[in-house]
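Service request form, structural biology core

Requester: graduate student, group of Dr. S.
Request type: structure prediction, single chain
Budget code: on file
Notes: please return the result as structure tokens.

Sequence provided:
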Amino acid sequence: HLFPNTAELVSPCLTIQDEKVVRAQVEHLVELGHRRIGFLHAAMENEYLRPLHARRDIFCRLCMEFNLDTQYDWVSCVGWEKEKVRTEVRRIMTAKRRPTARGIYDSYVNPVYAELRACGLVPGKDISGVGMDTNVIGRLLIAGQPEPERPRISMIACHDLTPASHGNACGVGL
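Core staff response, request fulfilled:
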């Protein structure tokens, strides 16, 4: 079974270590001093995708473990539509009380950053985020799986680090 979509894992199977991924993200944000952290969730309310729901549940457990000041409506299920992602980011970031950091699904980086800028916020200064995946740059790094032919990215550059980020740009995952 490769990446089974069941609540309980079957053996043998191949899965991503969701606990380690989400814990590393939350610990990183907490180390930066964040206490108000949100989570942008890729699944829809009416569908079940084990890894996505596991990550949400792990995030909620870690909020309790670290005694974070997280509100229920900062954990959002938005699915895969970029416009819905932007609408949800706008709703949360224009509220009177908002998170100072967010965990986001990897493919949401562009629409999230676009909406933050449209709200007059600077990613990395006004709000922090975690969640870059090497699949976005065409790197799977899965044994037995060929790397995609496109995109062919040979170099990655990080632009727009603000002074408030203190040089922090981790998370590309190569």
